[in-house]
Amino acid sequence: MFDLGRSFLAAVERRPRATAISDGPQRLSYEAWFDVIQRAARGLEDLGLAKGDHLVAAMQNRWQMATLHWACQFSGIVMTPLNWRCTAEDLAWTLENADARALAHDESVLEAVRAMGRPAVPCISVGEAAFPEALGFDDLCARAPAGTILRAGPEDWSLMLYTSGTTSRPKGVPRRHRAERAAALAHVAQNLYSQEECTLGVMPLYHTMGVRSLLSMALLDGHFVCVPRFDVEATLDAIERERISNLYLVPTLYHMLIEDPAFSAERVASVRKIGFAGAPMSDGLMRRVQDAFQPDLFVNHYGSSEVYTFTIDQAANRKPGSSGRSALNQRIRVVHLTSDSPTEVAAAGEEGQIIADLASDEAFEGYWRRPDADAKSIREGWYFTGDTGFFDEDGDLFVTGRVDDLIITGGENVSPAEIENVLSLHPAVEEVAVVGLPDEQWGKLITAFIKVREPITDEVLDAHCVSSGLARFKRPRRYQFIDQIPKSPVGKILRRVLVADYSDPQPAEQP
């Protein structure tokens, strides 16, 4: 079985002069990039990092960040990327938690690095250095190794992502080379990528979607186009300039692209395959994306950092809301909401918790130093995702939200996703998020937060919900019109922020 270093080396040998990566005016062929990657691997080893050590990297999607990722794959160092929006406290905690042997950063993290103070490990900088003794990226890559550095095998650790923290610290998710490669191969197959594909590298490289885009291109001699951070004009320019053939984004970024005045079908005409993941796409947005791109392939990918792929639907617009069926390397079940056993399977149409088989080639094996999290999520060889959903009569999975997001109102379980899909179809609604706010009478009051295209009243939205067939007990009791729906850096709705900001007593409507 190949490790990731050998996978990249195979691409170099197949098409050495094919464009591997670009970042604005910077363009490198596979042959030229391999030389820089090997130099970076030599530089990391000269700093004292060895196989199994962790490199914490906090950077935007620059070619240097991608280079460090691949250098780690050749040297056996564990790439440990961190959100470049991190605070000094986040940085210090991660360096300690991961037992990091070095820190790499760019100017987007400069303030946080300086506020943290000089770390006890070597510091590598791209652009302005936080401290005089930091090693510049060019200096890191100054010397070529005497021979090819190729130290990792398929069983070695490749990467450790940190999952998003809510009420506690994020959890480290260590993944082996074989799992990372299997996930990348599945990504190629499930998105029908072909030789010399060209993808947009804007999903952050601290996120599983960004990593998958990076790895999958190398498996088929493809071109990874760096966009350091999402910006509509920069993204459209990159698509036009590089004739990008596929997009793999969270729904929020599609929304931002097609709603911007700069968007036109002509500017994205090269894109024939689109995929989304990271969060559900509302029915309304799905229709607008289909109309805007008219793609040959429209993929809904449902997965996680822990187990890359759960399910795939390669015709997402065929049945809006469906996440399809188990992917190439996976088995999926839905069990009763309160069950701790993978054998207590829910009936078709019954909402429950989604679980995944950890025998998958793509699966992780447990969290980094978090036996408490392992005990909560791993049971009898199955990963309890914390997501809710159900299988319809055809066998397609519908993901309805998170167990923690379920709204229990008047003794009934209500999924926010169902209400959001209905409201998203109203032409005056641009974006919507539904949460349950504390209420003395109902326990939780179903509340819809709406970003509108044009003014609209509560009464019109309520009538729309009823006429759409939404059960009366599920319709919102309160509508709140806001300028922006709060989201995480990768586009997930931050329901907890809405709950915290708007949990004030409101009169509840009678059913």
UniProtKB/TrEMBL annotation:
Keywords per UniProt: Ligase
KW Oxidoreductase (keyword) present: no
Ranges of residues in domain AMP-binding enzyme C-terminal: 418-492
PROSITE patterns noted in UniProt: AMP_BINDING
GO molecular function, one term: medium-chain fatty acid-CoA ligase activity
GO biological process, any: fatty acid metabolic process
Limits of the AMP-dependent synthetase/ligase domain: 10-368
The organism's place on the tree of life at top rank: Bacteria
InterPro entries hit by this protein: AMP-bd_C, AMP-bd_C_sf, AMP-binding_CS, AMP-dep_synth/lig_dom, ANL_N_sf
Protein family per UniProt: Belongs to the ATP-dependent AMP-binding enzyme family.
Stated name of the protein: AMP-binding protein
Organism, as annotated: Alloalcanivorax marinus
